[in-house]
Amino acid sequence: MTDEGVLIAGRYRLQARIGQGGMGIVWRATDEQLGRAVAIKQMSLHPGSEEALTEQAVQRATREARVAARLRHPHAVTVYDVVRHDGKPCLVMEFLSSRSLAAVLAEQGRLPASSVALIAKQIAGALAAAHEEGIVHRDVKPGNILITAEDTAKIVDFGVSRATGEATVTDAGTIVGTPAFLAPEVARGSHATVASDVFSLGATMYAALEGHSPFGETDATIALLARVARGRITPPETTGPVADVVSAMLRNDPAERPSMRQVHEAFVALVEGRTPVLPPPGPRTLVLPARRPRKGAAVAASAGVCLVAVGVVIGMSLAGSGAVPEAASPPNSATVTTTVSDHGCTASYRVTNTWPGGYQAEVTVGGERGRRLVGWSVTWRLPEGYTIDDVWNGVLARSGQHVTVSGADWNAVVPSGESTAFGFVGAAAGEQPLEPRLTCRTP
């Protein structure tokens, strides 16, 4: 990234490198304006032309900051700011003197059930709060859980999280997350949902109890993904109520898993010496409570590093899918208008969040009567005083008051019977968000 002692954004002085991962390099730094320690994470760019990819990386970092900033919880690391240094995006976060759970397990092998229950209680509480804000973490794993000397646990790196109701910037055919802790449905190609986070936290706590992931250990990524996709876990050797709760979290059917709030309550009971209560296996409907939009809160999606299984098909294609996960309804969402064009494609528009003077929307595009699309664009007119910015999963063009969003490289082709989506943040001159009439066209 750069050297110790460098000043970032005119206020953050780098002190020492403290970590490095798929999302970037992390430094301990000092905020010289506020006189406090912070963590600075420079987002990694994909291989290739930095000049061509820097803006995309900045957008990714900005979305991560916005998603993470929505969550204020004592067991989630706080994101303070997103800045640029040498044209590259940097996240400014709470500094926590700690070790990752992965490092703790590498040293100790496994933890006693009482310690696992205490960690799980704290992290499940933070994730339950995130789910109630419409945020799916998507990469819960030992490396993303920090433990202090006082046994305080915090979840970090919402860099691959998704605010439900928003499109992502991941390429079609990619899997987001860490293989050993993925939920089976995600390995098979489904979108990550709140139930997937439950499984991933269960897999993480299984590793803390047993010393290895529920799918065993292998250095062969593709073989591990295939094993995860089949959903065949090794029953834990550890017995007792903590293992029972973890096993409930690892149910193969997402509909049979407890909610994260129920998981949190179960671990609270265990830490307090009470008997946990969990729902029996059986289909259920996951419903997130609607949240009132908060003043000035612009919500954007975040997509971080992707694990790409190249040339191997195990039912994991995500091509063209931009739909909202069925298990987690977005907050404050409402379908505003749907236009079926006679130009070969359909486009449906909905507002996913609002705040004073602004709003966020998502547009879903598909082939008319289920046909395959090879290239698409959606056009509408903005009244005076309305703008749109920060478009993701699409390419924006303006002509006067008319805006056109066309497919990006990774979603211009939409297979038969499938759909894709793009999203954006807009400024509204009035109290209500724009309700446009869309025109969807193909070449």
UniProtKB/TrEMBL annotation:
PROSITE patterns: CBM2, PROTEIN_KINASE_ATP, PROTEIN_KINASE_DOM, PROTEIN_KINASE_ST. Transmembrane segments: none annotated. Its EC number is 2.7.11.1. Residues 12-267 form the Protein kinase domain. Pfam families: CBM_2 (PF00553), Pkinase (PF00069). ATP binds at K41. GO terms for molecular function: ATP binding; hydrolase activity, hydrolyzing O-glycosyl compounds; polysaccharide binding; protein serine/threonine kinase activity. The lineage of its organism: Bacteria, Bacillati, Actinomycetota, Actinomycetes, Pseudonocardiales. It comes from the Bacteria. This is non-specific serine/threonine protein kinase. CDD domains: STKc_PknB_like. SMART domains: CBD_II, S_TKc. It comes from Saccharomonospora marina XMU15. The keyword ATP-binding applies. It is an enzyme of class 2 (transferase). The keyword Cytoplasm does not apply. Residues 338-443 form the CBM2 domain. Gene3D superfamilies: 2.60.40.290, Phosphorylase Kinase, domain 1, Transferase(Phosphotransferase) domain 1.
